[in-house]
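Whether sequence alone determines local backbone shape is best considered at the level of individual chains. When preparing material for the folding task, we compiled for one chain both its residues and its backbone structure tokens. The sequence in question and its structure tokens are set out directly beneath this paragraph.
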Amino acid sequence: MNFRNAAKLSAAAALVAGASVSGAAFAQDAASGPTVSFNFGAATDYMFRGVSQTNEKAQAFAGVDLSYNMFYAGAWTSNVDFSNAGDTSTSQEVDLYAGVKPTLGPINLDLGGIYYGYLDQPTGSPVDYWEFYGKASHAFGPLTVGAAAFWSPEFTGKTGDAWYFEGNAAYAVNDKLSFSGALGHQSIDLASDYTTWNLGVSYMPVSNVTLDVRYHDTDIKGFDAAKGRVVASLKAAF
């Protein structure tokens, strides 16, 4: 399996084909103009689908988002380190994404695409790739449940068609404290399949700042970057 960027595929649920999408999301912010938000933070490790993207080292990240009605676009970046998989040159991840968040009755949807780009990639061994996603979620009071699926026509490292399916849930104790978890399965045409899961708690000590402590694990054997571990992160958004 190509573990350099090992499972950058997450999200979406099989949705009802041919159903009409509600226009409620358009009306919600019709009177307002575009909004811009920023985020930045740090973590003890950069975990993606249960696999460390920083060779078990610390992460620093930042992002910017533009939204208007149900439409959004953004960019996000983080340091990476794939030296444990033989790539000693790739140093930074830069993601570009765009999508739409309509509603279908009581279901909140998120449909879009994302380009994962990398700086200083090794010659002749591309790491970057595209994927397309769909997500669905519904809130039952303080409990929100969701499903997601991501698809890439050519996964990282030219490993072929790939899918990631995930189920997730979050429970808000109050406006500061919540618990959440996810169970996902990654399949790649020219690499091994695996299952991953995480469970954690998030707390907002002050407005717009979130502290998250989470346990990640996979069923991958013999690769240190995919072993179970606790990761702490701190994120500010404004």
Summary: The CA atoms of residues 143 and 171 lie 5 Å apart. Residues 1-30 have pLDDT under 50 and may be disordered. The helical segments are 24-28.
